[in-house]
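ok so heres the complex, two chains, lmk if somethin looks off
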Amino acid sequence: MKGNTAAFKNTLITVCLALCTLAVAAAQGLEPPRGRFYGMVERIERVEYSERAPIRAAYDWGRLAATRWLVGFGLEPDAVWYGGGVAGLGVNEVHSGEGETVDYDAVFLGLEGAYRRSLTRMPGAGFRATARFLIALPDDGEITDVARDSVTDGARAELSWNELTLGVAALLDYDAMRFETGLEYCSRDISQKWTFPDASRNTSRSTLTPDRDLGVRLGVALLISEGVEARLGMTVGHQTAFRGGVQVFF
Amino acid sequence: MLKKSACLGVWLSVMTLAAAEASSSNVGWSPQQGHLRLGGFLHPVALDVDEYDNRIRVKDSDLDYEGLEIQYGLTEALHMSIRYGLVSWRPDSEAPERFDNGIAWGIGLGGTVPVRRADHAGIDCDLGWAIAYDRGQPDAVTRLDGAVFDAELEWWHADLLLAGGYDQFYGFAGLRYTQMDLTYTHDSSRGRRRGGFQEADPWGGVVGGGIVWQNGVVLQGEVPLGNIDGYKLALMVDIGLPEGWFK
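and the predicted structre for the whole thing:
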């Protein structure tokens, strides 16, 4: 898996550089139909979870965190619809109730879409509905903080993670900026598998279910120049997450 | 939680749209475009926290944070801030250990959208928002058994406010979401161990106010509402930068 990650990383960087060059060269802020390219850092500070079938039944809770470096590329066929793909690299972190932290290098792949309408009676105002499906390819983990007992010493951990995020938000254009506020729903399917060095214990697979799935989304996009905007966003509630990046239209 | 998130999301959306047709001006809560505010602040807080590995509730975990702050009005509707100072932390008000003053820093971004503008003398009203991130590393604590505990403090808050200004006075009140990660680490025979505390309830409020003297000195205070006790008091000088300085 580590070899796959490295190969994917090199390919992704090459594709990103090529797309960046094309996008920046062509960026003119054209009216739809037009293309859209963005780069984004997404930091999930905390997602609290309950664990089904943990290694130790007494510790069936924990916290997730993640850092993602994502690029997205897609098309707006008109002023209403958007569809595209997402890819990236990052780290998923699982901190279990036993006190153990495991970091997983991850490759992310996904699809996303959006539907946007303006309110005719309120210039500059509108709403947008979004959807994104993202998977993290399974990868081996590295224990960075040890548990309070030796149960996982020498064991190998693997994490699989996929998520569906739906959002609906009000938009307001004001002073070269666009504000966004609304609701975000996120359904996550996460499982962690342990393989123990002691053959008599075999493996353990548990499901990590986030405690909450609904949150509030805040965001602002600042128009830097024609066809280029900087974006910052935050989600609170089901997770505390922050996003920042640059988006180019061409 | 679900109901709170839904209500807040809908309310925010309505407020965002309600602000769509107002015109522009300034309330003292936010520095004007091209203005720099420099000053100092005191920010002690105490809150109930949960030790997340043991699920134990601890009362009055307290932090003392003080330092220097710079705010700058990037545009009429957007400002940024940076902070640098000292922070100390006592995890439990009844515990003897206190992580003494260490370096802390923070960044923030905020903005306003006008909701109501008075024609002449009267109260202006803005919808305000702010996001702030602060991080600190107090001095290590050596326990009696010789174990050395390091601490790392990290906290975020997001505000959504209504701010009003009249003459040289202004006030604000609204919702505040605060997340705190107060983490300690130490060596063990099997490797590095990490544990810590998180806020017992992230949802709360904030209310505050200030005065702008002679368009040059700003005194501002705020009090959090909910799980967190404390205050923030800031005294700043407001300087209008000449044309061409970052404008």
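quick notes: Residues 38-240 of chain B form one domain. thats all i got rn
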